[in-house]
Amino acid sequence: MSEETTRYLVTLVVNGVVREAAVPARRLLSDFLRHDLGLTGTHVGCEHGVCGACTVLLDGEPVRSCLTFAVTVDGHEVTTVEGLAGDNELSPVQRAFTECHGLQCGFCTPGFLCAVTAFLRDNPAPTEEEALEAVSGNLCRCTGYQNIIKAVHRAAEIQAETQGRPEDRGGRA
Amino acid sequence: MKTETRTSLGVGASAPRPDGALKVAGAFAYASDLWLDGMLWGATLRSPHPSAWIRSIDVGPALALPGVFAVLTHEDVPGAKFYGLEHADQPVLAVDQVRYQGEPVAIVAADHPETARRAAAAVVVEYEVRAAVTDARRAALDPACPLVHPGGNVVRHQPVRAGSAGSGAEVVVTGEYEVGMQDQAFLGPEAGLAVPADDGGVDLYVATQWLHVDRDQIAPCLALPEDKVRLTLAGVGGAFGAREDLSMQIHASMLALRTGRPVKIVYGREESFFGHVHRHPAWMRYEHGATADGRLVYVKAEIVLDGGAYCSSSPAVVGNAASLGVGPYEVENVWIDAYAAYTNNPPCGAMRGFGAVQACYAYESQMDRLAAACGLSPVEIRVRNAVSQGSRLATGQVIDSPAPLAAMLGELAAMPLPGPPAYAPSGSRRQGGSGARARGMIGTREEPDPRRLPGGVGRTTRGEGVRRGVGYGVGIKNICFSEGFDDYSTARVRVELLGGEPHALVHTAAAEVGQGLVAVQAQIARTELGVDRVTVAPADTSVGSAGSSSASRQSYVTGGAVKAACEAVRRRLEALAAADPGLSLGELLDRYGPVEETREYRHRPTVPLDPVTGQGDSHTQLALCVHRAVVDVDVELGLVKVVELAAVQDVGRILNPLALEGQIHGGSAQGLGLALLEEIQMRDGRVLNPSFTDYLIPTILDMPPMRLSILENPDPNAPYGLRGAGEPPTLSSTPAVAAAVRAATGLALPRVPIRPEDIALAHTG
Amino acid sequence: MDFLRPATWEDALAMKAARPDATPIQGGTDVMVEINLDKGRPTALLDLNPVAELSRWSWTAGPAPMLRVGAGVTYTRLIAELGGWLPGLAQASRTVGSPQIRNRGTLVGNLGAASPAGDGHPPLLASGALVEAESVRGTRLIPIGEFYMGVKRNALEGDELIRAVHVPPAAGPQCFAKVGTRNAMVIAVCSFAVALDLRARRAGTGIGSAAPTPRRAHAAEEFLAGELDWDGAGPVDPALARRFGELVAEAAAPIDDVRGRADYRRHALAVMARRALGWAWAEREV
Q1: Residues of CATH 3.10.20.30 domain(s) within chain A?
Q2: Could you tell me if C111 and C21 lie in one domain?
Q3: Is A161 helix (H, G, I), strand (E, B) or coil?
Q4: Domain B38-130+189-236+243-275 shares a fold with domain B388-417+453-479+619-763
Q5: Which of residues 92 through 151 in chain C touch A, CB cutoff 8 A?
Q6: Contact flag A72-C1 (C-beta cutoff 8 Å)
Q7: Nearest CA distance, C31 vs chain A (angstrom)
Q8: Looking at residue A34, what DSSP letter applies?
Q9: Contact B450/B634 with Cβ under 8 angstroms?
Q10: Does residue A168 surpass a pLDDT of 90?
Q11: Structure confidence at residue B165 (pLDDT)
């Protein structure tokens, strides 16, 4: 490979598993996840922190992985869309997005799922306005957002129904 | 044999998307996710100038970089140097000159994307810059304008002449209107992977709207026979017209064939803005004449669309603007001239609504002016002139299926209006809201929740300057390809036993771009075959063309093909059953083996518009949608909060309610974006805002709740009576929002997107 | 691009002294936009994330304690933990980017980038904040009004880092308003902050995105100090509020760009300033 030669060892706990790779300082967390770890569920839609498709959970909080250098989060925990589901079933947020038709092309979906997972963890019964603001940092071009907001509330319902089942709770590992 | 059983997830059910589970799990492979060991990365060097001669290209410095495997220019194009959807006028790589900023000049393959980008930047190109032609009206109408192409600057001029001009109107309203350049702004930028094959051909995995027309354009440029260019649809992150033209397909294939290694090209967002066509900006002058009681007597219109540097689908866009230029209204006397012109602006082509969007904004603005001039309500003026089944369009074409526009308007107007403006704090709060309140960030006793007001969390008003406005918009869109195009789709359906159960495999080349066609194809198979287990095979070129995922046509045409293939399979199964009565489907399949049929489906033929009179049955199906928008406008600051969008659409037959609603929501949002936010801003042929920081698409706080009524008045000519649904809402939401802002402000607002200064500075004089 | 990763603040200062070309990075939400858009590629990054003390806030000593907001305090935490003392800053922070950006981005990062459009600047100007800049040579407190030097240029020396920003707790109502074309996730077309100091009977102001640097509206502040009836009850005199708005607009030096026209920016500032003064004045009795 002809890219920059100085490499830094980055160790992350990704979806509960210790992952390691030696990468240049320039490596974005999004590229680290996609290229170095092969976790292509995290999408890159704009490369400058606007669209939200690259949202992952860093120590449980949603962040833009395209605006984060992998080296700066060495040693931290990352949850990607691939880590939201339990062993055998989708998480409440994932289920709600499929049930409510909260996606079409699906490119923005992983970012929404991560943002909503953290939001409902902290605010399990949100008001309409709170739910809207929680996903106001994610762009979707297909759905007009109507079914996405339905999915947020539906996910809250499913979460409430299944509370006490820790495998359904995404977010903080 | 029994096939009559209605399965639970057949036509009419909200069958879940078969790709939904993969998409929420992060396991759906988009084109940008593809990966092969040893693959190279392609990058494209693009022109910084909108118009220039190329005096020299030196690829040496790029080739000298470690990790670079190939640097190619137009000299390396193996076959035809030009391609295009309608006319092959677009160079694969610029030949001696560039005609728009962003035109590809050279391509690079390297072992790392960063290296490829650096190498592309290291190619030395000597340009001789020339003046750019950037005014489409001048390009179209001024004979002294420099030529962008030697054949002239007019891509197409389509007149429509009906009746006689300008007779006997008691009320006349005129207006000039403009529509800015909108971008499709799909979320997943252009991407694909080209893999060189042992037979000297190439296998291309790409996000596109139409595999076969891609192949038709790629193969000649690669100097390969069609069977050596094989395309498979990779996961598509939205399309909306932007993937109908080629982007990286030929480039990646050239690099793969040259290097003998797989080559992947992924555009970034900025490159994406330069890498696909946009919606044509339009300048339109309209004159409507009517009787004193508001019945249209004549419409005159001049429509100039900026086609940009290359042809793309501009001729068909002109055909739509011309043929649908008066909208869904009965008027005997019509005089329309629609043009597309070449300029040195970015090429413009397909975007959802395709020529009908621009005209709709203008004619609906005119209808509101006419209503005001006649002292009628916006709804009444539209009802008085509304088309219905049997009406004759300006082109002479008779609408021969239900078109209950007046009833749709009545239903829309009768829908309840949303509550008063949110000057008061939000009332009841559900459990869980207290945390945010404790942080002091939600509306206090004094301050209403800013998220409900124009300006949002920018907190620019607590009700000051806010005025409510309501507006209506009506649109008519042709469904499927028009003007004599041989518009068909192909489906192969196979029924067999898998694991002891009957199973249907549906195979078409139709591109699932997010719209939900995969679900609809499976639903049709379930309904037609009575088989629960259906798989939709990946779309590729090993089956016949499905046509484009555009023009709201796939449920109609590919749906029709799947239905036809299923019916053929069913007939064979019925024949077997007749010969062997009493056997179940499973037993028949067990005894006789798989049954497979392939069918092509064509809609009723259309004819080109007469080049002089614009007459002809150019469309096969027409669809209506009506919108009502309610807005709160801060008239002092010019900020707009859309409070509600309501829509009534006649879709003939609902195939999948949830997916259909999603289409109407999404189309309405894009229309809202055009009304208020979205424009590629140009100066002297240069794009000023090629990023999501400054090209603003609606967020969830910009898109209001929607109220929908979906009608089912079947079109007897279409499969299941369905009417294409994806585009009509994109037409009518723009003029509805604009009209609502006009109602709130009292301003003319002749241009979309409406910018804050258009409102705020008009009010202060 | 080199990557420097100090474990302590002292290490960070030493590294910055040795590599004045290094760009400090905390949440990365400003620095990385520039890098990703190829607008600037630093030769070295100085990652301040490991310096744990930077993510803390505290009160300064002395007779008029200020909040000392460490360079690593994110917008999300600022809103949640300091909003009661710094309402104007909290309102501005809430308009920064998106929830995801606010979880990583920091107020001090906004200062480092010194973009005229940064949302944090106007309330800092209105409150009279101090920037705590430090190098191996020592520490200095830069008054916020002297900190912004030009478009994306600040008063830091090559070897200096911002350790914290000192912000006086609100001494009266504060309001922030920001015009963006979209209702969320938008860079300011222009913005305005006002902070009333009811004890000192003065008002601070801050203007964003309407001049090469964020700036105060001095004449407008003096006008209020002199003309506002600080003991008066009831709403603010409309003519006075209008004049205040005009003076704020006159203090701006905006340009035309893709986000808005200069004349619109001036107009919007006048409207926002007039309204914000009215809201702040009304809130003083709550």
Answers
A1: 8-83
A2: yes
A3: helix
A4: no
A5: 97-101, 103-104
A6: no
A7: 8
A8: I
A9: no
A10: no
A11: 67
Domain boundary among C131, C152, C167: C167
Q: What is the pLDDT of residue B242?
A: 98
pLDDT at position B4, please? 44
User: Three-class SS of residue C222?
Assistant: helix
Kindly report the nearest CA distance between residue B760 and chain C, in angstroms: 7
Using a CB-CB distance cutoff of 8 angstroms, which residues of chain A are in contact with residue C99? 62, 115, 119, 133-134, 136-137
C12 and C63, same domain (yes or no): yes
Averaged pLDDT for residues B591-602: 98
Query: What's the fold here for domain A92-165?
Result: DNA polymerase; domain 1 (1.10.150)
Which runs of consecutive H residues, i.e. helices, occur in chain C? 9-18, 31-36, 75-82, 87-94, 99-104, 107-113, 121-127, 218-227, 238-251, 262-283
**According to the CATH classification, is domain A8-83 in 3.10.20.30?**
yes
Look at the block and give the residue holding tokens 């994307």.
B113
Instruction: Locate the chain A residue with the closest alpha carbon to C37.
Output: A48
- Asked if C193 and C277 sit in the same domain, the reply is yes
Residues C240 and C158 in one domain: no
Question: What are the tens digits of pLDDT across the range B90-120?
Answer: 999 999 999 999 999 999 999 999 999 999 9
CA A51 from chain centre, in angstroms, equals 13
* Distance, CA of B148 to CA of C26 (rounded, Å): 49
Put simply, the answer to whether C177 touches B458 (Cβ < 8 Å) is: yes
Return the CATH fold of B38-130+189-236+243-275: Aldehyde Oxidoreductase; domain 3 (3.90.1170)
Q: How much is the pLDDT for A78? A: 98
pLDDT band at B428 (very low <50, low <70, confident <90, very high): very low
pTM of the complete model: 0.96
At B623, the amino acid letter reads A
Q: Where in chain A is the domain with CATH 1.10.150.120?
A: 92-165
**pLDDT of B641 above 90:** yes
A113 with B23: Cβ contact below 8 A: no
Model confidence pLDDT, tens digit, residues A25-58: 989 999 999 999 999 999 999 999 999 999 999 9
Q: Do A127 and B112 touch (CB under 8 A)?
A: no
Which chains reach chain A with 3 or more Cβ–Cβ distances below 8 angstroms? B, C
d(CA B521, CA B529): 12
> Do C182 and B639 count as a contact with CB atoms less than 8 A apart?
no
Q: Which chains touch B (3 or more CB pairs under 8 A)?
A: A, C
Residues of C in contact with B632 (CB under 8 A): none
Say if the ipTM goes beyond 0.90: yes
Topology (CATH) of B136-171+283-382 = Aldehyde Oxidoreductase; domain 4 (3.30.365)
pLDDT 10s digits, A61-107: 999 999 999 999 999 999 999 999 988 899 999 999 999 999 999 99
For the record, the structure tokens of B709 come out as 């009524």
Contact: A133, C99; criterion CB under 8 Å: yes
How many domains is chain C partitioned into structurally?
A: 2
Name the closest residue on chain C to residue A52, using Cα atoms.
C100
**B202 with B256: CB under 8 angstroms?**
yes
**pLDDT tier at B591 (50, 70, 90 boundaries)?**
very high
Quote the pLDDT of residue B166: 61
Average pLDDT, chain C: 95
Contacts of A78 (CB under 8 A, 6+ apart): A12, A13, A14, A15, A29, A33, A56, A57, A58
Domain identity same for C28 and C134: yes
CB contact under 8 Å between B446 and C87, yes or no, is: no
Domain residues for C228? Answer: 174-283
Report the relative pairing of strands B282-290 and A17-23 from DSSP bridges.
unpaired
CB contact under 8 A, B436 and A50: no
Chain B contact set for A133 (CB, 8 A): 451, 457, 701
Cα A41 from chain centroid (whole Å)? 9
Q: What is the pLDDT of residues B543-575, one digit of tens each?
A: 999 999 999 999 999 999 999 999 999 999 999
CATH label, B388-417+453-479+619-763, candidates 3.40.50.2300, 3.30.365.10, 3.30.240.20, 3.30.930.10: 3.30.365.10
Checking if the pLDDT of B440 tops 90, the result is: no
- Supply the mean pLDDT for chain B: 95
